[in-house]
Design brief:
Blueprint (H helix, E strand, L loop, with lengths): L1 H38 L19 H4 L4 H8 L1 H25 L5 H30 L4 E6 L4 E6 L7 H15 L6 E5 L2
C-alpha cells in the first residue's frame, strides 16, 4: 500500500509543479509582453548567437546584451520556454528519484518511466508546434502542452489574431498533438 501512496505522491507533486510553472508564466506574461515591444528595437542576445568555439563571446559582432536580461522578463517567449523547461526538469528529477528509490517496485519504476516519456513527448510536440507556427510567418510562438490540452501563445504584428490565424495555428496543433479542437487554446501575446 505504501508503494501506491509514494507513486501517487510523486505524480501529484509533478502535476503541481507543472501547473505552478504554467500559472506563473501566465501571471507575468502581461508585464513581459509589454517590455518585449520595448526591447525588440534594441540589441538583445539570443542564446547560441556570437559564441565562439573557445567559449568567449564576441560582443562586437552582435552588440549582445547580458544573458540575464533575456530571462528576467524582457522577453516573454524566452522566459516562458525557460520556466517550462525548468518545471519539466524538476518533474523528471522527481520521477527519476522515485524510480531509483530503494525498495521501489517495478510498477513504480514503470510509471515513473512512462511519466518521463510523456514529458519528453510533450516537449517534442511543443517544439514542433512552435517551429511550424513561426514557419508560417509569425514572429514568435510558445506552446504549453498537457495531457488533454495545448495552449499556444503567438506574437503577431498587430497583437491580435484573425480567424484565419486561429485556423492556421489550430491546424498545426491538431496535426501535431492529435487532440480535439476543444483542447486547443490559441491566444495572441499582448
Amino acid at each position: 500500500m505504501s508503494a501506491k501512496w509514494k507513486r501517487n505522491t510523486v505524480v501529484a507533486t509533478m502535476a503541481v509543479l507543472v501547473c505552478a510553472a504554467v500559472a506563473l508564466n501566465w501571471r507575468y506574461s502581461g508585464e513581459a509582453v509589454q517590455s518585449t515591444q520595448e526591447t525588440q528595437d534594441t540589441d538583445t542576445k539570443i542564446l547560441g548567437e556570437a559564441a565562439l568555439v573557445s567559449g568567449q563571446e564576441d560582443d562586437t559582432a552582435s552588440g549582445a546584451a547580458d544573458e540575464s536580461e533575456v530571462y528576467t522578463g524582457s522577453d516573454y517567449f524566452a522566459s516562458a520556454r525557460l520556466t517550462r523547461q525548468q518545471a519539466r526538469d524538476n518533474a523528471i528529477s522527481l520521477l527519476q528519484e522515485a524510480a531509483e528509490q530503494e525498495g521501489a517496485d517495478a510498477a513504480t519504476a514503470n510509471e515513473a518511466s512512462e511519466g518521463i516519456q510523456a514529458l519528453a513527448s510533450y516537449t517534442l510536440k511543443e517544439a514542433q508546434i512552435e517551429n511550424l507556427v513561426t514557419a508560417k510567418g509569425y514572429a514568435d510562438c510558445v506552446a504549453f502542452m498537457g495531457e488533454d490540452s495545448v495552449s499556444v501563445v503567438v506574437s503577431t504584428d498587430t497583437g491580435e489574431l484573425t480567424a484565419e490565424d486561429v485556423a492556421k495555428i489550430t491546424d498545426i496543433a491538431l496535426a501535431e498533438t492529435g487532440l480535439p479542437a476543444s483542447g486547443i487554446k490559441i491566444m495572441a501575446a499582448n
